[in-house]
Write a structure and sequence with these properties.
Layout lengths: L8 H17 L5 E4 L4 E5 L10 H7 L4 E5 L11 H15 L4 E6 L3 H10 L4 E7 L9 H12 L8 H12 L6 H9 L4 H13 L10 E7 L7 H8 L4 E6 L6 H4 L1 H16 L3
Parallel strand pairs: 2-3, 2-4, 4-5, 5-6, 6-7
Antiparallel strand pairs: 1-3
Helix pairs in contact: 2-11, 3-4, 6-7, 6-8
Length: 274
């Protein structure tokens, strides 16, 4: 097996354990802060997926204050972009951070978009990683997700089926769907999480418009998000696009060196404009 085809999930599990230990050590607030300087908040999706930010957080914390936290998720009541934006505001207030750079992977981009709409004066810049202008699904799956998002169908959906669907959509040679499925299934009530915490973000229309500097990063090996939709987010006013060849949906982790270099260069330009 070539190096490019080696599963990165074992390393991801190890990295996630380290992040989880740091969050536990932070106390009841479950907020991790590294470094000093202007704040960069890496927006979480699920606490169990915070490992995707590990390489980026390690690099940025040498010259910035990097913030990562364990988010609330729900499998019984809506907890989408609006609720997550309120949570982000509470985290910033708790840390005494007036303005921050926001970095979001995947559907956490919806939180950045909603927060930017609600509190634009608190956003210094935005980075979207693998986030599209809109999630485009096949017609049948789109219709099913619309019904799922508005009904109690999740109660009759086996968690293993919901986990399998997510794993198939997000998987790649570096993050094999079979191994990814086991990690997603371990989350517990996956069908409920899909209904109340994931779909609200997937159905949110992302907007990169606004006065602050914005970077959108995507690759051509993402099964979940078409590259054209990521480019379309970057076509909105005030946004730049960076292409990472061969990047899958877990690009901050599987293409760590390329993504870290791209994001670091962007943030340095924001900090020291020419």
């Amino acid at each position: 097996m070539s190096a490019s085809m080696t599963s990165l999930i074992p390393a991801a599990i190890a990295a996630q354990r380290l992040v989880a230990e740091e969050l536990r050590a932070s106390g009841d607030e479950q907020i991790l802060c590294r470094g000093s300087g202007d704040a960069i908040v890496c927006l979480p999706t699920f606490a169990e997926l915070n490992f995707v930010y590990a390489p980026l957080a390690d690099a940025l914390s040498r010259s910035w204050r990097v913030v990562l936290y364990a988010p609330r998720v729900s499998y019984v009541s809506p907890f989408g972009p609006a609720e997550r934006a309120t949570e982000l505001m509470a985290v910033l207030d708790r840390l005494g951070v007036a303005r921050a750079h926001l970095v979001a992977w995947s559907d956490a981009g919806a939180v950045v978009s909603e927060f930017s709409r609600r509190a634009p004066d608190r956003v210094l810049s935005r980075v979207y990683l693998g986030t599209p202008a809109a999630y485009v699904m096949p017609r049948g799956l789109r219709l099913m997700s619309a019904i799922y998002a508005r009904s109690g169908l999740y109660r009759f959906t086996p968690d293993r089926l919901a986990a399998l669907l997510i794993a198939l959509l997000m998987g790649s040679p570096a993050m094999p769907s079979r191994q990814l499925y086991r990690r997603i299934r371990a989350l517990g009530p996956v069908a409920g999480y899909l209904r109340f915490s994931i779909l609200p973000c997937l159905r949110y229309p992302n907007r990169a418009a606004g006065d602050c500097a914005t970077l959108v990063v995507g690759g051509d090996a993402d099964r979940f998000v078409p590259l054209d939709e990521i480019r379309r987010l970057a076509e909105q006013p005030g946004a730049d696009f960076a292409y990472v060849r061969g990047a899958d949906h877990f690009l901050p982790w599987t293409k760590a060196s390329e993504v870290t270099a791209t994001v670091s260069a962007f943030l340095d330009r924001v900090r020291r404009p020419t």
